[in-house]
Design brief:
two-stranded antiparallel ribbon, alpha+beta, Beta-Lactamase, 5 helices
């Protein structure tokens, strides 16, 4: 199987190589051995290079597996903690919310994402909410307030919100966590 791949690769190289035998002027790679070079030595070097690439590939696979396990662990911690968490952008739009917060508001998490958190704050507490966010962005220090929230069913709940500012390097947007 590998021999067939190698033959096909050599044919492609020979078809794309200019008349002088050089595949690319930058590397000087040639489809035929240079005078004075031992083809067996070149094959040996290529085999060593192949082994090194396979080792690097194995290492990358292990790292990818570890990252996936870490992501699963983090997601479970985030979603199943007994505290509701939400990540907001600078305008108060929900970027992410955990399952606990969705249960508290008696709604689906997907119904929260990309919606303003203010949609769930009672009208009489809207000013408290906006002043809370304003103080957070101005002071860049942890802020605490009590907000009355409305559930999907229309009932209310009062929650103590603890917010802190952080930068998410992948989104470059500030967020808060209750």
């Amino acid at each position: 199987m590998n021999q067939m791949k190698n033959k096909n690769s050599r044919r492609k190289i020979q078809r794309t190589a200019p008349a002088g035998g050089s595949v690319d002027g930058k590397t000087g790679f040639s489809s035929r051995p240079l005078a004075g070079e031992d083809p067996r030595q070149l094959i040996h070097e290529l085999q060593i290079f192949q082994v090194e690439l396979e080792l690097q590939n194995d290492e990358l696979r292990c790292t990818q597996q570890e990252l996936m396990e870490f992501k699963i662990h983090y997601t479970q911690l985030y979603d199943f903690t007994p505290v509701g968490y939400v990540t907001l952008d600078a305008n108060g739009k929900i970027l992410n919310a955990n399952l606990t917060l969705a249960r508290m508001l008696e709604t689906e998490r997907s119904a929260l994402i990309e919606r303003p958190l203010s949609d769930h704050v009672l009208p009489r507490d809207q000013d408290i909410y906006y002043l809370h966010l304003q103080a957070l962005f101005e002071s860049k220090k942890r802020q605490i307030c009590d907000l009355k929230m409305k559930k999907r069913t229309g009932s209310t709940l009062t929650r103590n919100w603890k917010a802190r500012l952080f930068r998410n390097p992948s989104r470059r947007k500030p967020g808060t966590a209750p």
